[in-house]
Design goal:
2 domains, binds zinc ion, 13 strands, Defensin A-like, alpha+beta
């Protein structure tokens, strides 16, 4: 009799322990980053299985949408389970952005499992792993650096400038990119095409082009 009661309380304990354990969401099978299913609609691209992707990564639609649009550098909308955005990037590029998202916001860096969720406190977002208990603050992602524009003021380059002033010697003076550009023959107020001949410090010498 006592033995039975003991057994029962053991089962009870077991049941209780099981209930308190974090529930793994995937059934032990290997989790893979979902593959994007794209369709071109004129100059726009549609991620047809966006809903499915959201379910798989278990993240907020707005969060993933914002990330994808920002990383792809485009505009778009999440509607009716599909993500539609402007432009036709290579499918590989779209997939890579989703991979980036999963590596940053879904997959636990400790155990490699996707059974995680995001927790936000005042300043940081923390990725908490339900499988191994790890939590790791997410580094603020820097926006993809825009390609640097070519400098305009460069020896040998032909550019258009506005003559803003005239120097004591009578040369026209233009300003651009922090340079003072001397333009012999340039009249104040004129828009002229010049070739940069020489740069010295923040002063450039130029010649009016025909
Ligand atoms: Zn983990």
């Amino acid at each position: 009799m006592a033995e039975k009661a003991e057994q029962q309380s053991y089962l009870e304990l077991l049941r209780k322990a099981k209930k308190e354990l974090p529930q793994p969401t995937s059934s032990g099978e290997r989790w893979e980053i979902p593959k994007v299913d794209l369709m071109t609609e004129g100059r726009a691209t549609v991620v047809r299985n966006f809903e499915e992707i959201l379910q798989k990564v278990r993240r907020d639609a707005a969060h993933l949408t914002t990330f994808m649009l920002r990383e792809l550098g485009t505009a778009g909308d999440y509607e009716n389970g599909r993500l539609t955005f402007q432009g036709n990037p290579a499918p590989k590029t779209v997939q890579e952005r989703l991979n980036d998202y999963c590596r940053t916001y879904v997959i636990c860096s400790e155990c490699g499992r996707p059974d995680t969720h995001l927790e936000k406190d005042e300043r940081t977002t923390v990725l908490k792993c339900e499988a191994c208990g790890a939590h790791k603050p997410i580094q603020a992602r820097r926006a993809r650096a825009a390609p640097k524009p070519e400098p305009m003021v460069k020896e040998g380059k032909v550019i258009e400038v506005l003559i803003q002033d005239v120097s004591q010697r009578g040369d026209g003076v233009a300003k651009m990119e922090g340079y003072t550009i001397f333009v012999p023959g340039g009249r104040k107020g004129a828009q002229v095409k010049i070739m940069i001949e020489k740069i010295s410090g923040n002063v450039a010498f130029s010649k009016i082009q025909p």
